[in-house]
């Protein structure tokens, strides 16, 4: 049992990998889900596997510095996913999302979802005075998004008709402006502007049906990547999409506009990524067409399943269910195939 949180990796013995270095703590049982509160010593754990360390119906709040449990949340169903953002904990079950205050452990809201056997939820970083969450609701292909930053904003929500079939994967960029979604067909990724719920673009994965393991935004909002069940990793350039969304949304808020312009001075430079299959990075003015030609970077791994995260210095990290850690570099200007330069198998190293 394992899950990836940014550059962190966990398996049954509670093994964390940080920049390919790791340490282990014996938990005497399986851990099915884990989430870290940013880069702190606070973790949320849920038991899993054949011999779970904790009940799958409990969220254990663990202080890794003390090595102790500092809080327990008990739900009446198996917990399929858990997330922590700032002062809130999100427990995802098959038909509900429970939101708790991290400080008081009070249940501040309960949201009903569509049949959700894999615990699908997407949450922004919680910075920028908003905490956007997205989740499937009680109608196939529909999703709901709302701002959970405080008790006032959490009451208001918007609905998006994302797909015809069931939603299989969701992701929100750090500042909560862009949502990416895929369906169980797995042939395309749809991109939405979270200011108004508008579908502004779509990326073609392929013709054949496939499962997307996860969708990930780079922290600079220039790239978007995913891993498929066939071990295919694709990265798309979203530079022009991010630029257009920022320009449109900033017109409505002068304060945000100044912040975005500051970020734009860093992001918009001569190294703007170019589309290899289109006219050398030509920016599309019309967003209601599907951007089938935006595939920018590719990598094929031998394992069928993996989780992807973007690292520093134009690198990506992939961690597979077999315990393999793969680090690769990509060309942010010309794209092409990733170059793998570091590869380890932590499970074999432990044996």
In the CATH scheme, the class of the largest domain would be Mainly Beta
Level of helix content?
under 10%
**Overall tally of structural domains:** 2
Task: Describe the main β-sheet briefly.
Answer: 5 strands, mixed
Strand order in the largest sheet: 21-22-23-24-28
Strand segment tally: 29
- Report the end-to-end length measured between terminal Cα atoms: 16 Å
Shape: globular
What's the CATH architecture name of the largest domain?
A: Beta Barrel
Secondary structure category: mainly beta
Evaluate the radius of gyration: 20 Å
CATH topology of the largest domain: Lipocalin
- Report the portion of residues in β strands: 35-45%
Number of helices: 3
Ranges where pLDDT stays below 50 over 5 or more residues in a row are 1-20, 266-272, 274-293
Task: Give the overall average pLDDT.
Answer: 79
Outline the secondary-structure elements.
Blueprint: E1 4-5, E2 8-9, E3 15-18, E4 21-24, E5 31-36, E6 42-47, E7 58-63, E8 68-74, E9 81-85, E10 88-92, E11 96-101, E12 107-112, E13 122-123, E14 132-136, E15 142-147, E16 157-161, E17 167-172, E18 178-183, E19 188-193, E20 198-204, E21 212-217, E22 223-228, E23 232-237, H1 239-250, H2 254-267, E24 295-300, E25 306-310, E26 315-320, E27 324-329, E28 336-337, E29 339-345, H3 346-350
Parallel strand pairs: 24-28
Antiparallel strand pairs: 1-2, 3-4, 5-6, 6-7, 7-8, 9-10, 10-11, 11-12, 13-14, 14-15, 15-16, 17-18, 18-19, 19-20, 21-22, 22-23, 23-24, 25-26, 26-27, 27-29
Helix pairs in contact: 1-2
